[in-house]
Amino acid sequence: MNNEIRIINGIVFDPTNNIDGKVVDICIKDGKIVSEVSKSAKVIDAKGMAVMPGGVDIHCHITGPKVNLARKLMPEDHRLDPHFKTPNTQSGSGGIVPSTFATGYRYATLGYTTAMEAAVPPLTARHALEEMYDTPIIDNGFYVLLGNNLFLQSLIAEGRFAEFKEAVAWWLNATKAYTVKLVNPGGDEPWKGHKNLNVKSIDEDSKATDIAPRKVIEAFIDAVHELGLPHPPHIHCNNLGHSGNYDTTLETMKTAGDRRLHVAHIQFNSYAGEVGKPPKSASKEITDYVNEHQNITCDVGQVMFGKAMFMTADAPLTYLLRGYKKEKWVNADTECESGCGILPFDYQGMIYTHALQWAIGLEIFLLSKDPWRIVLSTDHPNGGSFANYPLVIKLLMDYEFRKVAMRSVNQKAMNSTILGELKREYTLNEICIITRAGPAKCLGLKDKGHLGVGADADVTIYDMLEDKEEMFNAPRYVMKSGQLLIADHEFVSDYTDKKVLRVAPDYDKEIEKVIKPFFDDFYSVNYQNYAIQDDYLHGLGKVIGTKKKNSIYEN
Amino acid sequence: MSAASKDIKVVNEKIVENATCTFCGCCCDDITLTVDMDKKVITKAKDACVLGKSWFLNHVIEDKPIARIAGKEVPLDDAINEAAKILMDAKFPILYGMSDTVCEAQRHCAPIMDDCGGTIDTTTSVCHGPSGMAFQGVGEPTMTLGEVKNRADFVMYWGGNPAEAHPRHFARYAVTPEGMYTPNGKDDRTVVIVDIRHTKTAGVSDIFLQLKPGKDFELLWMLRAACKGVDIPDDCKDICGVEKEVVEDLFQRMKNCNYGVIFFGMGLTMSRGRHFNSGALMALATDLNEFTHFVAKPARGHGNVTGADNVVSWQTGYPFGVNFSRGHPRFNPGEFTTVDTLSRKEADAALIIASDPVANFPKPAIDHITSDKCKLISIDTKNTPTSEAAHVSIQTSTYGINTGGTVYRMDDVPISLRPAFDSPFPSDLEVLTKLRKKVNELSKKANRPYATKKYM
Amino acid sequence: MKGQLILIPGRSSKQGVGLNKGKLKEEYIRVTTTLELSFEDAQELGLETADIVKISNHIGETEVQVKVLKEGKLPIGYAFIPYGPPSSCLFDGETCGTGMPASKGMTIDVEFIKKGVKKKTALPPKTAVG
Fold first, then answer.
1. Predicted pLDDT at B10
2. Phi and psi for B111 in degrees, rounded to 5?
């Protein structure tokens, strides 16, 4: 079977290789981009179309235990959005939290071929891997929740940094994760153990926490730096969602010094104003810091009007938000490791706070100077579904459209922002950076996000349309690892040879002797049954190399 | 002779450490199995409870055909082809069961029904199905069992009998273990049992509330009202059989604990009120978070029913009772649940996997499934009334004893199994993989318009 | 010697053990055909442990063996039976739109048939102390 493809006449966007809208041929063989193919290669004529690498979602919630709880919670939402079976694909349910099959297919129909699950507790990581196997087409990986891990926190508190670093490496291996995720570090203990309290400052060293969040953050930044992971710690900052939280965000970023840190859904952490009162925009303060510090990357977590689902390890926040409408609510505590809150939500343009959140996200996009360090995300489904990405793109590329959109939402909120004054319009090349090239670079995925020789042949071809939402909503062709999946907007085949991306840093086996007694005492599963076997990757695992460093000062 | 055979026995003894028992939802993963590899039996199951011991020690490789059609032995592939053909030809095929097998096998079930436009349902629908429906309505604050061990100082069992249904639940997770913030084990906990019968479970309680049968909702609602500042009514005893003072004391304890948990059983879901009962309990646990940290959890039962719930949910969006006849999943308990599709005589083919409706279902359902109006296909590890009544019967190896894979504990924690010895019978995974492939082939051949078929 | 009671089927550890030995084996059959009655009801109906009775309702009927419990173990007017084929004979297929048959709390008639043989397993269980 000939597995060669030549894409001709397409207008290629490949920012990594400095190709900005030039007509060049793209050749594919054996799932990779190559410099030349034989004459018998299948030819796709992309005349008048934009050719881009497949999209990379750096932060979404699509697989794992909390996602499945949220799925179970929303039958009324699935009912409104069925995902039909086709001769080549399976059926599923859509809505704000689609079923696994529907999730894979729907990402593909937006031209996305990689999506990283942003928060999985180690104890239930098997579940996430099992769901990934049932999520077709897209490559996945996940970030493992370690920020509220009681064992790791006690090592930090006792100043046993060397052991801490080894334990982090052990956990990454045991769970087959891609990097470390910190969510509201230090916030679980007051929530679970002190009658639903929360931490209020990253320097709070109260009885409830034992350890200040800043110390936890610092330790993880150092450890991940030394382990040389391809992606730095991925942090959901303390005080997320609260007015006046931008200070905490700035302090968190300062804690990193000049070491790398990824701030997740930074929009939710860019609020000025007083705690307990309606927020104000602090997009300028936040983007100023990000613009000046090359070591910081972030994704936006754009809020979009309509249905959303809070689904986060930040349990106290979810409970707080539940207070507004007393909607159905799920809380799920994971022993020694994490908390979790789930709450259906609805962002409405007429509500001041929601409109302001929407505007702050757009301001952050428009004020940031380096598109390589700011990634498009809606923190799916927390800020809205990933299905909103085309609309976000249109808002960024079209100033006039933005102005019209601003008129239909809460005017008090609009008057308190500078969004109306920001006339910048993203170019196609910049869109290609914030949806593909940039996130791939932030993740350290050298084979993704570009179309240079040797890259994975994940390619999307869009009709060049005036309306950018329409354009990005339905690629004409999508290829995954060189296999044609969508042709003329229809699925022509299913793809199941997807990859699970992970890291496997070396660690000192002696650390298991330190970890095991803690398991024997405080876990409900046996230590020997905790680490995940390779079977769970179903032969689809792909290890991304790490570059170990000898100290935090080495780069 | 005896000395020689003894020697062989020593050589062929195998120890499996940290094995997991899949009998009840506790999934204890600390069992040490001693296996006689010659006789292919487990001779010891250290640390297993009475149910676990009987699960492991009674497992023998039976001398039976792998596959039978109409009682006659056939090659496995013939049985699979026949099963696939029956499912494709049927107007209203149903798939039911899945509780006693691993997730890897369960994963093939929904796609099979997707391809033949059938209905999939798990044993959840006659177990904690109503709790699943209640969850959709009110949500649930919940936890993994280790949190109970480490933190819970108030533990309540409502309408369940773990002493008999989940024998190690007390010792491993909820009553006696010494945890991080419960260093004195049972002394640090208040244990409350609510039931209509004075069961073995009631024996371990600090407080036992013997409720009037069918009055669970009333008591739950009184406690919910109490959370909102409403007094417990004076005629409390007449309403639900428990003294007013006892309920008042109970409420104070719930409110003032540090970490409270309620486990609830089928006493709630199977009696009058069903999902309203579970819903009231989950809502009560939610309400109590106004005062303290409070969680609830259905004490889910048999085998890997929790895994079946999870798999069907992630594949279709719904936990049980899912129909594919319109080319996408639809959920409607009461319509697509198995007791109903059988009692109403709608199903004309039934694929029963690792469960036994012929023994457990209501009589009208049994009458239909065993009649000639409904072609019965059974995939099971043991001889059961269902496998005996089946037109196509496939015998498989037993999960957790002969095959590995994943099961979900009652608290949604996935655990990997460690098989003890091989079986001549194929695994559920193998059989279902083949069946899925065959059904998929037939469905492509049939080339039916997906959105307009059969049952509408 | 005929009366009406409310039947509550449920799980028991003996039923679970019997199930593992095999559903077509004697132990499982014996366990699932044992009907537990309260002390008071047994007196009222003139029944004692090991009696064989017919239990029936509008769905079906079956014969089971009686086991009389100590006072206070079961509320008066109620009977308990482990899940199994006999209890299934009495379940209605109506699920009231839930999928779950009303399998706890159905009204049944109890009628004496004959005296049975007392077995060791028919003694009331010890109270568990944990």
1. 57
2. -60, -35
